[in-house]
């Protein structure tokens, strides 16, 4: 069951100067992720959708024909993760999500017609309302990428709650405990994968 919904911005700036292109990272919900004008206004060139139960068609000029859905390029690079809001996703999905977000920040596009995207730009991480799945992933990312600023996962979550305007009476589910635990476990695995500690 979803908790109460409070008014908050469609997207919220969370962190700046990330990755080789000095990108800004935002969190938002479906209303922000589907608003091309808003994305353009904030220099967002990439959307990382965390939600398994939310699809956004960002294809430009595609036409549905019968059972065939529109395909093609969009104005925005789009990555889809498919996390469940609560229990149900294997913890390894959060680990994969971390590396997808890291890859989206660092990816250098081939200079060919079939890759009509510029390198760099800002990134929006979204889920349905930008309160749990996206908060978990971005907290994990900031904790691992900026450990001097966010020495613990709790430090990153606290900062995101403030910047995303998440109210204290909803903190019990922002993020959901199972997603927070998945982020905590992914943090340990990242340390092993990247040689920061031994098994």
3D architecture notes:
The structure is a single chain. The chain is an alpha/beta fold. It has one domain: Protein-Tyrosine Phosphatase, Chain A (Alpha-Beta Complex), CATH 3.90.190.10. Helices cover 34% and strands 17% of the residues. It is built from 6 helices and 5 strands, in the order ββααββαβααα. It has helices spanning 30-33, 36-41, 91-106, 133-145, 153-163, 177-193; strands at residues 11-18, 23-28, 44-51, 77-83, 122-126. α3 packs across α6 (177-193) and α4 packs across α5 (153-163).
Question: Main attributes?
Answer:
199 residues, alpha/beta, Protein-Tyrosine Phosphatase, Chain A, five-stranded mixed β-sheet
Q: How are the SSEs ordered, and which strands pair?
A:
Blueprint: E1 11-18, E2 23-28, H1 30-33, H2 36-41, E3 44-51, E4 77-83, H3 91-106, E5 122-126, H4 133-145, H5 153-163, H6 177-193
Parallel strand pairs: 2-5, 3-4, 3-5
Antiparallel strand pairs: 1-2
Helix pairs in contact: 3-4, 3-6, 4-5, 4-6
> What is the CATH-assigned architecture?
Alpha-Beta Complex
Structural class assignment: alpha/beta
Helix segment count? Answer: 6
Please name the CATH topology.
Protein-Tyrosine Phosphatase, Chain A
Q: Kindly provide the name of the CATH class.
A: Alpha Beta
Strand order of the largest sheet: 1-2-5-3-4
- How many strands, what sense, and barrel or not for the largest sheet? 5 strands, mixed
- What Rg do the Cα atoms give? 17 Å
Protein name: Tyrosine specific protein phosphatases domain-containing protein
């Amino acid at each position: 069951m979803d908790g109460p919904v409070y008014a908050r911005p469609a997207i919220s700036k969370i962190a700046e100067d990330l990755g080789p292109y000095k990108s800004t990272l935002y969190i938002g919900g479906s209303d922000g992720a589907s608003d091309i004008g808003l994305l353009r206004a904030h220099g967002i060139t990439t959307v990382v959708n965390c939600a398994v139960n939310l699809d956004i068609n960002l294809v430009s000029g595609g036409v549905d024909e019968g059972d065939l859905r529109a395909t093609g390029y969009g104005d925005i690079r789009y990555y889809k993760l498919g996390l469940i809001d609560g229990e149900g996703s294997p913890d390894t999905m959060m680990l994969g999500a971390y590396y997808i977000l890291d890859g989206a920040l660092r990816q250098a596009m081939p200079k060919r017609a079939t890759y009509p995207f510029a390198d760099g730009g800002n990134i929006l991480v979204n889920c349905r309302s930008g309160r749990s799945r996206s908060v978990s992933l971005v907290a994990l990312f900031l904790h691992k990428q900026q450990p001097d600023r966010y020495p613990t996962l709790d430090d990153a979550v606290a900062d995101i709650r403030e910047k995303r305007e998440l109210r204290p009476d909803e903190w019990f589910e922002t993020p959901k405990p199972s997603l927070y635990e998945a982020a905590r476990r992914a943090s340990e695995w990242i340390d092993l994968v990247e040689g920061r500690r031994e098994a």
